[in-house]
């Protein structure tokens, strides 16, 4: 805007400096009413606290499938990458040699039983002869020993037959648990040398594990807060565990913590922690990166104010508080975590303080203010929207 020629430049500068000095001092021009501000009255309440970490999913059980006998792999009975049930046939090994072994064991058992029957008859014939002094004691002892040897041979034959039948059953390689198969490492026609050869692997994904690390510094801060009473955590690992997928959606099932290592990983500076979640539909796959959300902790007697009320100055964060004389007072504060749209105030405020949240541009230290009626009874720290996490 062009100034009239009658107004000199020095006069304009003096007026600007004077007005600036008045604003810095917090005074109002003569005849002007105090600026109207909105305030919230500080209250204390219990707040839910959540923690978020980056985690990775893993199968709750990973099992290597191996044959127990040596033979030619005849057939694969499953589709790679598909679900299998416990006891389902996965592979067939050529059973012909093992059937022959069973037949041989059965023949050996029949011979052992025949020899035992003969030994028993011989011992039975010699007993009355010994009593009639018609046979020597040595002959009877030999017959009795032969009977015991024949009985032992029968037991050995039974064991060999059971072993042969077991090996025959092992030609049917079954799934030891329900889960998802990987690719088949060995193909049909391969000579499988027993447990030395890996056939495939099965991963159980229901339930599924989520592994994540808690930084050592944060772990110590939580412990100190619990010890001081500023934080309450559920006992016995009772945190509710939720998982957010890469698209931001939250997984429908909730889980619980089931393991926390006592050691700190020297490479990452974190404590390995694990949660277990039901995964009946297989939505979560092993190896996924997810956000792990722990719920269940609370912060008792917490003081919160809207984020817009907290200002940044040369000496740190501060708020304006309306004192008993209806003047704006600068109050340095120490903030903690976010809770929805609010700051958690750790130091600097107490119950009953009236914190200015609107009209801050017209306020200076020590300036008189007029509290708007609509905001006079507005409570500090409105609850966050449903599902809004506590930010860190």
What can you tell me about this protein's structure?
This protein is of the alpha+beta class. Among the domains are: 50-58 and 205-300, Beta Barrel (Elongation Factor Tu (Ef-tu), domain 3); 68-93 and 174-196, RNA polymerase II/Efflux pump adaptor protein, barrel-sandwich hybrid domain (OB fold (Dihydrolipoamide Acetyltransferase, E2P), Beta Barrel); 95-170, Helix Hairpins. Helices cover 26% and strands 36% of the residues. It contains five helices and 20 strands. The chain has helices at residues 9-25, 96-131, 137-169, 216-228, 373-376; strands at residues 36-41, 44-66, 70-76, 83-84, 89-93, 172-174, 179-181, 191-193, 198-215, 240-244, 255-260, 270-277, 289-306, 311-313, 316-322, 328-332, 334-339, 342-347, 354-358, 370-371. Strands 2-9-12-11-10-13 form a six-stranded antiparallel beta barrel. A four-stranded antiparallel beta sheet has the order 6-5-3-8, with no helix packed on it. A three-stranded mixed beta sheet has the order 19-1-20. A hairpin with a 2-residue loop joins strand 14 (311-313) and strand 15 (316-322). Helix 2 (96-131) runs antiparallel to helix 3. The radius of gyration is 42 Å and the shape is elongated. It starts with 8 loop residues before the first helix and ends in a 16-residue tail after the last helix. Mean pLDDT is 85; it is low at 1-25 and 383-392.
């Amino acid at each position: 805007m062009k100034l009239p020629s009658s107004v000199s430049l020095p006069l304009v500068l003096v007026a600007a400096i004077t007005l600036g000095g008045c604003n810095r001092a917090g005074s109002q021009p003569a005849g002007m009413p105090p600026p109207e501000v909105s305030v919230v009255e500080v209250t204390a309440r219990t707040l839910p606290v959540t923690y978020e970490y980056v985690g990775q999913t893993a199968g709750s059980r990973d099992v290597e499938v191996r044959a127990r006998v040596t033979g030619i792999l005849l057939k694969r009975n499953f589709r790679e990458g598909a679900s299998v049930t416990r006891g389902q046939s996965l592979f067939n090994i050529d059973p012909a040699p093992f059937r022959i072994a069973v037949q041989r064991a059965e023949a050996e058992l029949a011979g052992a039983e025949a020899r035992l029957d003969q030994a028993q008859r011989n011992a039975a014939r010699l007993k009355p002869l010994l009593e009639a002094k018609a046979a020597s004691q040595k002959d009877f002892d030999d017959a009795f020993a032969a009977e015991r040897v024949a009985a032992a041979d029968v037991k050995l034959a039974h064991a060999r037959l059971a072993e042969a039948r077991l090996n025959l059953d092992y030609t049917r390689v079954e799934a030891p648990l329900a889960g998802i198969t990987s690719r088949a490492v060995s193909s049909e026609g391969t000579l499988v040398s027993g447990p030395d050869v890996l056939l495939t692997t099965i991963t159980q994904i229901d339930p599924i594990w989520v592994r994540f690390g808690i930084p050592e510094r944060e772990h110590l801060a939580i412990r100190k807060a619990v010890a001081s009473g500023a934080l309450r955590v559920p006992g016995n690992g009772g945190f509710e565990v939720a998982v957010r997928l890469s698209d931001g959606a939250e997984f429908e099932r909730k889980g619980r913590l089931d393991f926390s290592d006592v050691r700190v990983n020297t490479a990452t500076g974190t404590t390995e922690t694990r949660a277990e979640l039901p995964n009946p539909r297989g939505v979560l796959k092993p190896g996924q990166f997810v956000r792990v959300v722990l719920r269940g902790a609370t912060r008792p007697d917490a003081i919160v104010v809207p984020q817009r009320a907290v200002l940044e100055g040369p000496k740190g964060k501060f708020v304006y508080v309306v004192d008993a004389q209806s003047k704006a007072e600068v109050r340095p504060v120490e903030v903690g975590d976010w809770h929805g749209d609010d700051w958690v105030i750790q130091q600097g405020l107490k119950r009953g303080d009236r914190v200015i949240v609107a009209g801050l541009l017209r306020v200076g230290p020590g300036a008189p203010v007029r509290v708007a009626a609509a905001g006079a009874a507005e409570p500090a720290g409105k609850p966050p929207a449903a599902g809004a996490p506590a930010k860190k």
